Structure formats: C-alpha cells, structure tokens
Amino acid sequence: MAAIHNLKNNREITILPADKGRTTVILDTEQYEEQMNEMLQDRNTYEVLKKDPTEAKKKKLKTILKQLQEEKKINKQTYNHLIPTASIIPRIYGTPKIHKPGAPLRPIIDSMGSVTYNLSKFIADILKPLLGNTDYHWKPWVFCFRMGGLLNQ
Q1: Which residue, among 90, 3, 103, 95, has the nearest Cα to 52 in the 3D structure?
Q2: pLDDT, tens digit, 9 for 90 and up, residues 101-126
Q3: Residue 143's pLDDT band (boundaries 50, 70, 90)?
Q4: Residue 82: which of 121, 125, 127 has the closest Cα?
Q5: Torsion angle, CA of 87/88/92/93, rounded to 10 degrees?
Q6: How far, in Å, CA of 94 to CA of 98, rounded?
Q7: What are the E-state strand segments in 76-137?
Q8: Assign residue 20 a region: left if phi > 0, alpha if psi is -120 to 50, beta otherwise?
Q9: Which of 4, 85, 100, 135 has its CA 20 to 30 A from that of 50?
Q10: What is the chain's mean pLDDT, rounded?
Q11: Which of helix, strand or coil describes residue 51?
Q12: Which portions of this protein are annotated as coiled-coil regions (predicted)?
C-alpha cells in the first residue's frame, strides 16, 4: 500500500487510464504537460478566452430554466434539479492512445460539477432510449453482418 501511495503523490509522474482497454499508464509529468500544451496550441480547435464565461452561462441557464418552469414545460422538481448551484470550470485532460504510434493524447472534458452538468445528464437520459432506433445510428454489428452478406454473394 505504501508503494501505491508514494506513486500517487509523486509529482514527477502522471497516472492515467489508457484511451482503450483497461490499462493504466504512467507518464513523465513534464512530457504529459508538453503534449497537452501542444494539443491546446491548435487554434483551429481551441480558443483562448478573454475571461471566464462560467457566471454568464450560469445566469443565462437560470433564466431559461425559470422561463420553462413558468411556461409549465418543466415542474418545480426538475427546475430544482437542473438549476446550476456549482460553478466548477470544466477541465481538460488527455488519455494516451497507446494503440497508436507515439501514444498521442485523446482530449477528455471533465464537466462534473460544472454549470451544465445536471442539464447534460438530464438531456442524455431523454435521448438514451432513442439511440439505435433510427437509420442514422450506426451499429457496428449490423454493418459487419451486411458486409459479410455482400462479400459472400
């Protein structure tokens, strides 16, 4: 147990789950931070904000939820569940793609506790039963089955 505790507290290494598979990866912290910074420098993908938009987003979401409650589109219980109480800024981290050369990082956004976290979960729960019920949802096993049928003709 002491060894695990020492590894966890060692600031020179970063311990992360791999992108695929149930594997844990130990990276040199300096190398990991360099990879993350390099990824975040891509201005086609990421933008530097002049100020933190969290409070403005929180205010706007409260206004929208209040209006939905007044219009009886959501009830008081749903309103209370969705109203943002925390203002934690989502954080980005990268999981190494160990199956690819150079193990590039896959960006992951951790939104737990953020302004939109409860709303996102609420919407995901609404959409979950719809997944797989349209022609636009890709099912790998159906694709393989159809391709197998085409290849065997």
Answers
A1: 90
A2: 988 999 999 999 999 999 999 999 98
A3: low
A4: 121
A5: -170
A6: 12
A7: 91-96, 105-110
A8: beta
A9: 85
A10: 86
A11: coil
A12: 29-78
Longest Cα–Cα distance in the chain: 61
Determine the Cα–Cα distance for residues 82 and 119; give it in Å rounded to an integer.
5
Q: Which residues contact 68 (CB under 8 A, 6 or more apart)?
A: 74, 79
Rg of the chain, C-alpha, whole Å: 22
Instruction: Determine the straight-line distance between the first and last CA of the chain, rounded to whole angstroms.
Output: 59
* Run of H or E including 81: helix 76-82
Taking Cα atoms as reference points, which of 96, 89, 81, 73 lies closest to residue 25?
96
Residue 93 contacts residue 112 (beta carbons within 8 Å): no
Label residue 42 by pLDDT band (50, 70, 90). Answer: very high
Q: Are strands 91-96 and 24-28 parallel, antiparallel or unpaired?
A: unpaired
Name the percent of the chain lying above pLDDT 90.
Answer: 57
Residue 53 binned pLDDT confidence (cut-offs 50, 70, 90): very high
Question: Contact, 104 vs 97, CB < 8 A?
Answer: yes
Domain boundaries, the chain: 1-50+92-111, 53-88+116-153
